[in-house]
Specification:
Elements: E1 4-7, H1 14-24, H2 36-46, E2 54-58, E3 63-72, E4 75-83, H3 92-106, E5 111-117, H4 121-130, E6 133-144, E7 157-159, H5 180-183, E8 188-192, E9 201-207, E10 212-219, H6 225-236, E11 241-248, H7 252-259, E12 263-274
Parallel strand pairs: 4-5, 10-11
Antiparallel strand pairs: 1-2, 2-3, 3-4, 5-12, 6-11, 6-12, 7-8, 8-9, 9-10
Helix pairs in contact: 1-2, 3-4
Length: 275
């Protein structure tokens, strides 16, 4: 470990941080390039803690890799872990993972968690060796809005994210990026199906020009496929594509979306460790 130098991220601008991110994720399974503005938004949305991030250089000052760490109370989350291409295959990832865990322990966090793509077997082994254990699988599904089947007549109401917050943990623990602390940093909308018996039927969506991302869904009534499609169309708005992102494998909503024709575009393991 003497051949490497470590620091936190306090002294770096988002221009520098995005450059380090892009280098450490070059050659990844899909494009991960970000701008300084996207870096800043990511840090804000996921509560990345610059004091607990680990930036790694070699003894000559060349950038080796970086581990971003978000914190919420005594919980930690690795929100980005990568090694620059010229240092891959030389054990640097193991050194960075060990240092990340050390920093988490020394700062008195109780747990540390992360996600890793199922096809990223090398990273999975690095995290396992560092002490992480796979807890569950998370799935990403997508569908072109125009490909949705026909919907049914259905009354819905729209409101802000506060209407969905009481439902976030109803069907189990969401992933880090779908917890209230992240939701409240985004301009989201709740689509609700009124129910005379007071059952919860709501979907939370975050829209961009390219995609409508479903951040959470709870349906206690037995909606027909046509009724659910109507809710999904209203959630999509003008976005050409719908995403269901990091949905837990046991989620009933995941199964419903698959039955409607949503296709899987990624799956990953959620891993965690007690510190």
């Amino acid at each position: 470990m003497d051949e490497y130098r470590f620091s936190n991220a306090l002294d770096y601008t988002h221009a520098q941080l995005s450059e380090m991110h892009n280098l450490s994720f070059s050659g990844y399974f899909f494009p991960m390039t970000i701008t300084p503005a996207k870096s800043a938004n990511y840090w804000r949305t996921h509560q990345i803690d610059a004091n607990r991030c680990v930036v790694m250089h070699d003894r000559h000052g060349d950038f080796v890799g970086m581990a971003r760490m978000g914190t919420r109370g005594r919980r930690g989350w690795c929100g980005g872990f990568g090694i620059a291409p010229q240092f891959r295959g030389r054990g640097a990832s193991h050194v960075l993972a060990e240092r990340m865990v050390q920093v988490a322990r020394e700062s008195e966090l109780a747990t540390l968690q992360l996600e890793v793509l199922t096809q990223n077997t090398r990273a999975f082994k690095v995290y396992e060796k560092a002490g992480f254990v796979a807890k569950r699988r998370l799935f990403g599904l997508e569908m072109e809005t125009s490909a949705l089947p026909a919907g049914s007549r259905l009354q819905t109401e729209t409101s802000g994210p506060e209407a969905f917050l009481p439902l976030v943990y109803m069907d189990g623990d969401p992933c880090w990026g779908c917890e209230p602390a992240s939701i409240l940093t985004l301009q989201t909308e709740t689509i609700t199906v009124p129910d005379p018996q007071g059952r919860a039927n709501s979907l939370l969506v975050w829209r961009t020009h390219e995609v409508a991302e479903i951040l959470g869904a709870v349906f206690q009534s037995e909606l027909t496929d046509g009724e659910l499609v109507t809710v999904l169309r209203r959630a999509a708005g003008d976005a050409p594509k719908l995403w269901l992102y990091n949905e837990p494998e046991q989620s009933p909503f995941l199964a419903r979306c698959r039955s409607l024709g949503f296709k899987e575009f990624f799956t990953q393991y959620e891993m965690s460790m007690q510190l």
